[in-house]
Amino acid sequence: MNRDPRLPDSPDTIVVFSDLNCSFAHLAVYRLHEARRRLGLEGRLWFDHRCFPLELFNRTVNERPGVDSEVSVVGALDPGAGWRLWQGPDWTYPVTMLPPLEAVQAAKAQSLHASEQLDLALRRAFWAEGRCISLRHEILDVAASTGAVDVEALAEALDDGRARRAVMDQFETARHGRVDCSPHVFLYDGTDVANPGVRARWVNGDFGVGFPVIEADDPTVYTDLLARAAELICETAA
């Protein structure tokens, strides 16, 4: 029987489908890292980032007005994640997130640790520092700042496109395999939570026209998810 392609390959891993240009995903990834640290699970539990490329689903760039409308609303849920309105000229705003998504996949050849640290650093570079992470040199500069990524190896992987297939395969899995949104988290036992802990609706128009209203936010869901993942590690080791 084929294993569900949305699920982790091992119990010590949590799969996170997301886009880098998604405020709800930035919040979720930050909270996952914080919960792992708080529970003392660093070095025991890993995040396997997979692609939910909004630009491919929507067949358009993730428009800046929509993204800007989310920053103060979603950012207020956890300011520690790092947030700032885009300060550069409009023409420096990223038109695609496929190159940095590909970089995160390429870094997995080094380790999940390298990949998850690059993912986290790229999110902070975009959301908190206003950097155009579509650009090759920005991706490599961010990678160097992590201290966890072999930048020369990553550059080679980006230049020959070896991780591009992974991006498209994950898009197909997300499109046809019941991945609901960015972010959507999956555990080894099939537990899954879309946009963990947060329920939102849009007022006065959809994304890019109206603005989001947060109807519920329960950050304890991250503690529950990581605690369950830790239980799975123990259960499979027994």
Explain how this protein is built:
The structure is a single chain. This protein is α+β, with helices and mostly antiparallel strands. The protein has one domain (13-237): Glutaredoxin. Helices cover 47% and strands 13% of the residues. It is built from nine helices and six strands, in the order E-H-E-H-H-H-H-H-H-H-E-E-E-E-H. The chain has helices spanning 23-38, 54-58, 64-75, 98-107, 112-127, 136-146, 151-160, 164-176, 220-237; strands spanning 13-18, 46-51, 184-186, 192-194, 198-203, 211-217. The strands form two sheets. Strands 2-1-3-4 form a four-stranded mixed β-sheet. The protein has a two-stranded antiparallel sheet with strand order 5-6. Helix 1 links the parallel strand 1 and strand 2 (46-51). Helix 1 (23-38) crosses helix 5 and helix 4 (98-107) crosses helix 7 (151-160). The two termini are 23 Å apart.
Q: Mind telling me the C-alpha Rg?
A: 17 Å
Q: What do we call the CATH homologous superfamily?
A: Glutaredoxin
Total beta-strand segments = 6
Residue share in helices?
40-55%
CA-to-CA gap between the ends?
23 Å
* SS element count, helices: 9
Low-confidence stretches: none
Succession of helices and strands: EHEHHHHHHHEEEEH
Organism: Microbispora catharanthi
Protein name: DSBA-like thioredoxin domain-containing protein
InterPro entries: DSBA-like_thioredoxin_dom, Thioredoxin-like_sf
GO molecular function, one term: oxidoreductase activity
Task: Describe this protein with a few key phrases.
9 helices, two-stranded antiparallel sheet, 6 strands, 238 residues, Glutaredoxin, globular, alpha+beta
